[in-house]
Design goal:
The complex is a heterodimer of chains A (233) and B (263). Chain A is α+β, with helices and mostly antiparallel strands and 233 residues long. Chain A has helices spanning 2-9, 155-159, 164-173, 191-206, 213-225, and strands at 12-13, 18-19, 25-26, 30-33, 36-39, 43-48, 51-56, 68-76, 80-84, 91-94, 116-124, 130-133, 140-142, 146-149, 176-179, 184-188. Chain B is built from 5 helices and 12 strands. Classes of the chains: A alpha+beta (233), B alpha+beta (263).
Chain lengths: 233, 263
């Protein structure tokens, strides 16, 4: 039922399309001109807290303050790490923003090129320069498991309504899973579980627009694991 | 810019391979799904679009009349080029071809040249003066690993699709390109001690060595190219060659099927 409503709500906009809505402010993926709101991206119209947004259908990740993301370290110098977030520009992680006390020039012994990190975006300026931080609970360097990539626009699908999809994935596969807002997903657990989780996520990505996706994925996981978990409670 | 792959992803791929598995559930000697469409570009003399999993390439053939090389005055000329455009991957840049594009073009070229694919003597119009030039242009649309096989298969399919435009150039009738042999390249990647066929992008990025083996329908080896710094021992090379003959045959049947359909 509720999924039917969702489908109706999904209205695809082209860049330059006028958004005819009363009493809304222009949000992400939109711009205002002559008191009219236009879409600046190809995507789906959504509303949140009085703002109208256009969520891009494809493309790279557009960094937003407060997002928790998974990055790969691409460069190290004496006071910063450069981090690739699958965004148009690299992000900067400063030595002051990590939970350790790092001596000047000793950066590489804590985090080195090729390491994966779970970080939060602390600031994005007008020029799209991105700063990230690791100095917060739950943020860390990822030492085991694996990372897969999906389109950033599919992230809400993998998480599901109120986290239903991700809870199910974790329950059936026995893996620790973290979905970064930039479309990178970290999966850790035994090798069979990881393998299954990857397959399930690929399935979600392929059938993202299908109705009853959660049920289809649950069926698949039940069949593969032979388990039947009651996750409603 | 070279892409940096995270250490933990690398480790995961190694662990899977140790257990005899691959990220997309394929066997070690299994190709991804291949899809070939010939005649894709209407204005070209011959063309093919090849999809090898998510790798997507277009090969076009242009025929023109020009002078032969002085050492082969009675033979046609083949010129192969490859374009790796930014559309295909964020790590490709516009500009003159780099090492990888040059290598790709040369490996495909070698298979076609040494495999005696086209009967070059029939492409001579006037000895020492006028011969047919065959331009093989390969464009990569989407890069997900193993361009060698995709482009090699595409070039072969496109050549078999080619009609020599004799009437347009007033040197006789239009006729299909005279084909002697059908060659197919197969590329093996070596990751640690494991050899895999048709590596995907992720696998290609962690591969130590790469060996492209091109064979023809008689089971003859016509060209080889070894890439990257890893080493293959004698037995491994022989294994690749034997497998290449078998795997090549199934792809060859597909390409032949396409040209028969046309007739």
């Amino acid at each position: 039922m509720s999924e039917d409503k969702e489908v109706k709500k999904r209205e695809l906009l082209l860049p330059g399309d006028v958004i005819e809505e009363e009493d809304v402010k222009p949000g992400r993926g939109t711009f205002m001109k002559d008191k009219k709101i236009y879409a600046s991206k190809l995507g789906v119209k959504t509303f949140r807290a009085g703002y109208v947004n256009v969520a891009a259908q494809s493309g790279r990740y557009d960094p937003k303050r407060g997002d928790k993301v998974i990055g790969t370290v691409t460069d190290v110098n004496s006071s910063i790490w450069m981090i690739d977030l699958n965004a148009p520009f690299p992000a900067v992680l400063h030595v002051n923003d990590v939970p350790w006390r790092v001596e000047f020039g000793d950066t590489a012994s804590y985090i080195d090129v090729g390491d994966a990190v779970l970080v939060k975006i602390s600031n994005v300026d007008e020029l799209k320069k991105v700063q990230v931080t690791m100095d917060e609970e739950g943020l860390r360097k990822l030492n085991s498991g694996q990372i897969i990539e999906i389109a950033p626009s599919q992230v809400p699908r993998v998480i599901g309504r109120k986290g239903s999809m991700i809870t199910m994935l974790k329950g059936y596969t026995g893996c620790r899973i973290f979905v970064g807002q930039n479309g990178r997903i970290w999966i850790d657990g035994d090798i069979q579980g990881q393998y299954l989780a990857v397959k399930a996520i690929k399935m979600i990505e392929e059938k993202a627009q299908a109705l009853g996706l959660t049920n289809a994925v649950e069926e698949f996981l039940k069949k593969e694991t032979g388990k039947d978990l009651d996750l409603e409670e | 810019m070279k892409e940096i792959i995270s250490k933990i992803t690398k480790e995961y791929l190694y662990t899977l391979l140790r257990e005899g598995k691959r990220i997309d559930d394929r066997g070690m000697d299994e190709h991804r799904e291949i899809n070939i469409e010939t005649g894709w570009i209407g204005t070209a003399e011959g063309s093919a679009r090849v999809k090898l999993g998510d790798t997507d390439v277009i090969v076009g053939i242009k025929m023109d009349i020009g002078e032969p090389f002085p050492d082969t005055p009675d033979k046609g000329v083949v010129i192969t080029s490859a374009e790796l455009i930014p559309l295909a991957s964020p790590h490709y840049e516009a500009g003159p071809p780099r090492e990888d594009a040059t290598e790709l073009a040369r490996v495909v070229d070698r298979g076609i040249r040494e495999g005696d694919v086209v009967n070059m003597s029939e492409l001579c119009i006037e000895e020492g003066e006028k011969v047919w030039l065959i331009f093989i242009d390969m464009h990569v649309l989407d890069f997900d690993g193993n361009l060698f096989d995709a482009c090699g298969i595409g070039a072969m399919a496109a050549l078999m699709d080619t009609i020599v435009p004799g009437e347009e150039h007033e040197v006789g009738e239009d006729h299909p390109l005279p084909i002697n042999h059908v060659v197919v390249p197969t590329t093996f990647s070596k990751i640690k001690d494991q050899m895999i066929l048709d590596a995907r992008l992720e696998e290609e990025r962690i591969a130590d060595g790469r060996l492209t083996v091109t064979t023809n329908e008689e089971g003859h080896l016509v060209a080889m190219q070894k890439g990257l710094s890893g080493i293959f021992d004698h037995e491994e090379v022989m294994e690749c060659i034997h497998k290449s003959v078998d795997i090549g045959e199934s792809i060859r049947e597909y390409i032949r099927g396409l040209s028969e359909e046309k007739i």
